[in-house]
From TrEMBL:
It holds the Pfam family SBP_bac_5. This is ABC transporter substrate-binding protein. Keywords: Signal, Transport. Its main location: periplasm. It comes from Tistrella bauzanensis. It comes from the Bacteria. It is found in: Periplasm. Belongs to the bacterial solute-binding protein 5 family. The keyword Lyase does not apply. The lineage of its organism: Bacteria, Pseudomonadati, Pseudomonadota, Alphaproteobacteria, Geminicoccales. Residues 111-475 form the Solute-binding protein family domain.
Length: 559
């Protein structure tokens, strides 16, 4: 590899609602939401022994900025709201990991709004449940399914590109046979088509309700669904205060599966990590899943909570460089940055070992037919400086280094370490902290020259990851604006070979696009993150999903 630097060998609200309202009004909560260091009051008061088994309190660093997965700039916490409030036609069965954690099975499906489906070479036909209703009692019909799919392929941006990942591109592909039967016509052989119907985007909306709030300027009713749910899912939003909390109530008429055990979910936004940990240790909070890794390690070692760590499926944390913004349009500059990243310091000081390194593969290691896999760069400051000089920047340059403040517990220390390391070769960076609610919008502008981000592919296939992140169609998550006809040809060839069963071509194509990604290095993989979840010992039923968020439907809470 030219220019390579050194190598190395995832049930009832408070019985006394007055206690909860009093708590929400308290000055302590205002301080807590602001991240102040305070003495935390008991959240549950006299109701602790009475109604808590039916209510789950979740605390996290950030919350949703949109309740609609089709919305513009919907952030990752928004996936959680959509997943639990909307149904899809189908979902995945579970399998057990060696550590006993239930983990979605990408090759096995279960029914949700569909009661059955059949597939042939030209189409898939879904028969809907006849007893399913939306939250307002309106029956779910095939017309709602078609409208929802038409919406997903038409609104543009993230949802439309996600549908295209499974060759779902045109409203004409979705054909209503009768009120309870819909056919999805294929426009090309694609092994991603059926699994793409089980992700978060093809949610089924109450079309009649949404259309009441649509306008000529907003024909899909996105303004309404940003703050209101219109689904048939297991939970419905009772109250949402952006930046503070989301309160869900169970939909007792849900027909998509067994009725959940938890009646009410309170998801409170607590920006300060120390306060989140204190809430868990006091027993006031039931679950948190974005503490600093140092805290997860300490809580795990203390043994008082259940700590589950699961590698992101098809995911990496990375340093990205916008290849349209000088000097990052120069491959030598990108390779210099790759040589200057303090990889092991990040694993040790930020991740505390709760991550799988994606760097330092042996120089003679063959490329695997897999993703993610480690590249062969390690920290080599002398080589980094030489590459930067060769690129024409012997004295370095100035730039900004951006991150999502919604996940600051990981992103900020990464950026500080990278800033310090790059300074040693003359690259002077100003750290740019972007509020979590704005992160997706800023990503979509593709103006940030240097940044850290995480991406995990919902469909666990290498070609899916690369279609999203490296293909010249320049989707949202091609955050580098990387364009390469050679890369596009390899990704397209892998997709075609997968659909036709041509194993030899598939393997060669995957190895080819991985090699090219590491040669051009528009993004630098750091590590494969773990989803770390801390729960009270009486909470069970956690399942790992491709979207990395909580599925409330299977959670159970003992006395």
């Amino acid at each position: 590899m030219a220019g390579l630097c050194g190598t190395a060998s995832g049930t009832r609200y408070l019985g006394d609602a007055m206690h909860r309202r009093d708590f929400l009004k308290s000055a302590s909560v205002a301080a807590l939401a602001a991240g102040a260091s305070i003495t935390l009051p008991g959240l549950w008061g006299a109701a602790r022994a009475q109604g808590r088994s039916n209510t789950l309190l979740i605390v996290s660093e950030s919350g949703p900025n949109n309740l609609d997965i089709h919305g513009v700039g919907t952030n990752v916490p928004g996936y959680e709201a959509s997943w639990n409030c909307y149904d899809r036609l189908i979902s995945h069965q579970m399998k057990l990991l060696p550590n006993g954690t239930p983990y979605y099975d990408r090759n096995s499906y279960r029914m949700e709004l569909a009661e059955s489906f059949t597939v042939d070479d030209k189409s898939a036909t879904f028969t809907l449940r006849k007893d399913a209703t939306f939250h307002d009692g309106t029956p779910v019909t095939a017309h709602d399914v078609k409208w929802s799919f038409d919406r997903a392929v038409s609104v543009g941006g993230f949802p439309t590109f996600q549908m295209s990942a499974g060759s779902l591109r045109k409203p004409e592909q979705f054909v209503v046979i009768d009120d309870h039967t819909i056919r999805v016509d294929f426009i090309a052989p694609d092994r991603l088509t059926i699994p793409d119907l089980a992700v978060v985007v093809p949610a089924i909306f109450n079309s009649k309700l949404v259309l009441k709030h649509a306008t000529a300027a907003d024909p899909w009713g996105l303004d309404y669904t940003k703050q209101n749910t219109a689904g048939s899912g297991a939970y419905k939003v009772e109250r949402w205060t952006p930046g503070t909390e989301v309160v869900y109530r169970r939909n007792d008429d849900w027909k998509g599966g067994p009725l959940p055990a938890i009646e009410r979910i309170i998801w409170r936004i607590v920006p300060d990590a120390g306060n989140r940990r204190a809430l868990l240790e006091r027993g006031d909070a039931d679950i948190s899943y974005d503490l600093p890794n140092k805290d997860f390690v300490a809580l795990r070692d203390a043994g008082k909570l259940t700590i589950i760590s699961t590698p992101y499926s098809n995911g990496i944390q990375y340093i990205g460089m916008n290849v349209t913004v000088p000097p990052f349009d120069n491959p030598l500059v990108r390779k210099a940055v790759a040589c200057a990243i303090p990889y092991q310091k990040i694993i040790d000081a930020v991740m505390f070992g709760l991550a799988k390194p994606m760097f330092g593969a042996p120089a003679d290691a063959p490329t695997e037919v897999a993703w993610p896999q480690p590249h062969k760069y390690t920290t080599d400051m002398a080589r980094a400086k030489a590459l930067l000089t060769e690129a024409g920047f012997p004295d370095g340059f100035e730039t900004t280094l951006s991150f999502d403040l919604g996940f600051a517990a990981v992103n900020e220390p990464i950026c500080v370490l990278v800033q310090e390391s790059l300074a040693q070769i003359g690259i002077r960076t100003t750290i740019n902290k972007i509020p979590g609610a704005n992160w997706r919008t800023e990503l979509s502008k593709k103006q940030m020259p240097l940044y850290t981000n995480v991406f995990s592919g919902w469909l666990d296939y290498p070609e899916y990851f690369f279609y999203w992140c490296y293909h010249g169609q320049n989707a949202l998550f091609n955050t580098m604006s990387y364009q390469s006809p050679q890369m596009d040809a390899l990704i397209d060839a892998a997709r075609t070979a997968a659909a036709t069963g041509d194993t030899a071509t598939y393997d060669a194509s995957v190895r080819g696009f991985v090699d090219l990604a590491f040669e051009d290095m528009p993004r630098i993989p750091l590590y494969q993150p773990y989803v770390n979840v801390a729960m009270q010992r009486n909470v069970s039923g956690y399942e790992y999903w491709f979207h990395r968020r909580l599925d409330y439907r299977t959670l159970v809470k003992g006395a």
